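Bench log. Compound arrived from synthesis this morning; before running ITC I wanted a structural hypothesis for how nicotinamide-adenine-dinucleotide sits in the protein. Inputs:
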Amino acid sequence: MADTMRLKGKVAIITGGTSGIGLAVAKLFAKEGAKVVLAARNEAAGAQAVAEVTQGGGEAIFVSCDVTKASDCQEVLRVAIEHFGKVDLLFNNSGIIFRNKDVVETSEEEWASSIGVMLTGTFLMSHFVIPEMARGGGGSIINNSSIYGLIGGKGVAAYCAAKGGVTNLTRAMAIDHAPQNIRVNCICPGSVETPLLRQEMEECGGLEKMRPVFAAQHPLNRIASPEEVANAVLFLASDESSYVTGVALSVDGGRAIW
Ligand code: NAD
């Protein structure tokens, strides 16, 4: 493999890495020389994702993990160290969404799982991984926020609350862990063609009807591919962004400035 690989020798943990944006990032990281730990819940999807990520010659393992559980997050770190000896990169990516729900319509369970998966999950993985990164001399954490971590949205109250938390947690972590040479940034995607977005479009009136409606919410008038988002994550993971920390990088076809 060429020496021009941008993540050569790095070890990356990716939560929710078995589908959508997480899987696209896993493939790109592996292609750029990283060893990848996929942390997600579904074993069958995990085996399939590992096969896809390693197809081009990269290294990857799957660890079963519910990011809302501290013991699972600790286990991901343990297995990562056992297999690869260190952790340089963490992509906190797991997410869920409940559509068409204001705070009155949102159940306590939906609220708790939204905050649990996206905000607590980001906290827990970072809580366990940061000391290990610090021991290794530093690292880069990328949190997957959303345009809804920057602006409000209709019928996505719990999601907005969780993603707003993720965006500002990113800034707090960037300040706290800069002395340990750990950079912390988040990406704020608009609509990206993944299982999560397809579920949203189904719930809003059906795929064929809603795809152009969702596309038209973005000045670029289209939905992003997971690979386009992965390119932004790669930039934040690589040394090319060595002086970038605490940033919320919109990857949204201009959606949040409209
Ligand atoms: P996706 O459904 O393909 O991926 C979400 C992943 O999170 C899945 O692999 C799922 O299994 C995992 N997950 C959910 N609950 C989990 C838990 N408790 N523990 C561990 N893993 C869990 O959808 P995606 O669009 O690729 O979503 C990835 C991230 O991108 C999410 O945080 C989402 O909010 C964010 N995002 C997506 C869009 C979009 O339009 N698709 C836009 C902005 C932000």
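What the model suggests: Strands lie at 11-15, 35-40, 59-64, 89-92, 139-144, 182-189, 248-251. Residues 108-135 form the longest helix (28 residues).
ITC booked for Thursday regardless.
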